[in-house]
Amino acid sequence: MILIADSGSTKTSWSLFDPENGTTAKCQTSGINPMYQDEKSIYHVLEKEFTLTPHPDGVVPPRRGGGIKLYFYGAGCINKGVNETVQKALAAFFKGSVISVGTDLLGAARSLCQNHEGIACILGTGSNSCYYDGKEIVRNISPLGYMLGDEGSGAVIGRKFIADLLKNQLPDAMHKRFFEKYDLTPHAIMDNVYKKPFPNRFLAQFTLFIHDNLNEPVLRNLVKSSFIEFFRRNVGQYPEASRLPIQFTGGIAFYFKEVLEEAAGESGYITGHINPAPMEGLITYHMNKSI
Fold first, then answer.
1. In degrees, to the nearest 5, what angle opens at C-alpha 128 toward C-alphas 125 and 132?
2. Is residue 99 part of a domain?
3. CATH code of residue 55
4. Model pLDDT for residues 128-154, shown as the tens digit of each residue
5. 95 — alpha (psi -120 to 50), left (phi > 0) or beta?
6. Can you give the pTM of this predicted structure?
7. Among 108, 183, 250, 254, which residue carries the largest CB count within 10 Å?
């Protein structure tokens, strides 16, 4: 049995499957990110939220079964030290399993490119990119997080939107519409950004409002300029990007696909796959590897 976890800062998708018949069991938990959570916090998320729903054709997995090969691809899993934090929490919960921890970017590359070279990008709550040679990530421009980088991400688009909102840079009607939709005050927004955990998740949620109002030129330009920044500051540093399509996974890429393709064209790039999530591609990748 193979269990795959695709974890971003907001949510973690889990799929367990049998390579012989392909049936799966799935569930979703909160995001697991060792940059923000310690071993105890990660274990608590699993203890509280992990419950696989069996596939109707079979595959009824043990809750913490031995003999499972677990491939965990996670945001923040960027070096040996933080990876060990995740590894220990997973080992404590999934007792007896063989566990591999890698970056969410490696998961995205394997999902989008399989065994072929390519430029693989994530645009979700955070953003990231790499050149993948068909086996491993060869080059990666550090995303730097939503304070210093993460161009094109939900957190950064949300941050820019909220900054414009609170500095009265948006039309009065939009300002009114926002505060009618969300039970928030400017003080509560500041409190969530500067004092409460996971401000990136808090900011990224407002991309739903932006998407619903994308016909407003000021919001469409905000999103497009953020994507152009992503191409200029990240993709532009990969020499291979001039000859390869740029492939994407993540909710922001998928739901703002039209704007993303427009920004790519204006930046001189061609887009390839734009998928909402990497899980289906990862199942295909590991299914083929196990044969």
1. 140
2. yes
3. 3.30.420.40
4. 999 999 999 999 998 888 889 899 999
5. beta
6. 0.83
7. 108
